[in-house]
Amino acid sequence: MKNRFSPTTFILPVSLILFLPVGASAGDSCRNILADGFYKEYAKSNVQRRDRSMYADLCSLDFQQASNAIKRVQQTGADQAPGLTYGLYNLDEVDVDAGGNPKVGSPVPDVSEEKFGQWKSGYCSKSSPADSSQAAEFLMQKTVGGSTSSPAPAVDSWAACKKKQQGLTCWAAPAPASSGGQNEEFLLNVNWTKTGSSQSRTPPEIKYSFLTRGAVSKFEGAPAKRILPADYKLRAGTLQIPVVRPADTGVFASLKVNHGGTEHSCKVFVPGERDFTLSEPFLNRLKFRYPG
After folding, report:
1. In contact, 51 and 73? CB cutoff 8 Å
2. pLDDT digits (tens, 9 = 90+) for 107-164
3. Torsion-angle region of residue 258: left (phi > 0), alpha (psi -120 to 50) or beta?
4. CATH number of this structure's domain 165-270, picked from the four choices 3.40.50.720, 3.30.2310.20, 2.60.40.2410, 3.30.450.40
5. Suppose 144 and one of 66, 68, 152, 261 were both cysteines; which one would form an S-S bond, judging by CB atoms 3.0 to 4.6 Å apart?
6. pLDDT for 213-264, tens place per residue?
7. Which residues contact 7 (CB under 8 A, 6 or more apart)?
8. The dihedral of CA 193, 198, 202, 205: what is its sign?
């Protein structure tokens, strides 16, 4: 019998769902902090932002993890059929009101493991699970709210956890909203924490850094398409680098350093508006309709 999940069967208590792995990097407890904050605030969040965040999150998950995430959302009462705006459910399956929202108390069909796999193959094909996980982290930060100077508690705790990871760690954060135009900015955080086995007292040295798709580092002295100058020496702690990119464009940022003869690297995917896009719910009785 295929695995299925629905709001009426196999409902785990929220306290149990809370601590189950929720990302492609399930071993990363830091991600669970951010995801937990996102799902706690789900019912109060901007609908479009939370839909994009959950879309990216589901693309990073396996079936059981996705099942847990969807149950948690359903238990908030805010959304009995998460996925109407990104194809996981369609209007043939859900009883909606005049505003296009699922009616409270109306039955929601099971989603089988087979159907979830078909959806994921069609709707998540542009990004790997790892890239989707990083995209979800970036979008969750936007959804949960707060600001760069005063982040939301979940974002602050997540970043504090990232800073404790040994070696080289990097992550992206949304920059304060700009006034518009053809470019937009995000903040690339590059963190170095000494490893427990390292005996070298020399700081790690940048050997390689790269930005894709027209992104430009605003770090002084960084060459075109580079994040930092070659041979730049990192200090312990977090270096925050503003990066400008063409509006709506998803970019990759990657770095490699040498520390005492050992290489460390990190890579970040920052989604653009053309990634994990939402669409109007649709009728689809015979087959899935895939984007593009």
Report:
1. no
2. 677 778 999 999 999 999 999 999 999 999 999 999 997 655 567 899 999 999 999 9
3. beta
4. 2.60.40.2410
5. 152
6. 999 999 999 999 999 998 899 999 999 999 999 878 899 999 999 998 889 9
7. 71, 74, 75, 80, 108
8. negative
